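Recall the central idea of this unit: under ordinary conditions, the amino acid sequence of a chain determines the structure it adopts. In this exercise we apply that idea directly, starting from the sequence alone.
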Amino acid sequence: MVQADNVDYTIQLGPDNVLLLAWEPGIRIEAGNARAAVDAVNEFAAGKRYPLLVKMANASHLSRAARDVFIEPCAASRIALLGENAVDRILVDYQLAAQPAPCPTRFFMSEAEALAWLLESEQQVNPQVDQRTP
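Accordingly, the structure predicted from this sequence is:
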């Protein structure tokens, strides 16, 4: 598994070829760290597109400027946003209602369900890809 660490988040490429962006709990997501995360995802992907699981549980704030960064297309083919509570869901629902996502995006409170959706969707897009191999 390839991994990069940052003060605000970590990024990993899992054995199932899903990129994982995990925000630190309680983080304030502003334009600067949002831009750094998107750039890191794009750098990690190295010109390829991957399903992206974003662990954003208990983010304390998502600024308008950060939301503007997140609507730009990136290396993600699909995005599953993983939260833990109603506040997380409200943040995501507001974001998706206010500005369209750059690719299919859904909110989940179960990591297993989020990964299943990402992998199922990726298999439909790329049927020749065997998701069981890294």
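Residues 127-134 have pLDDT under 50 and may be disordered.
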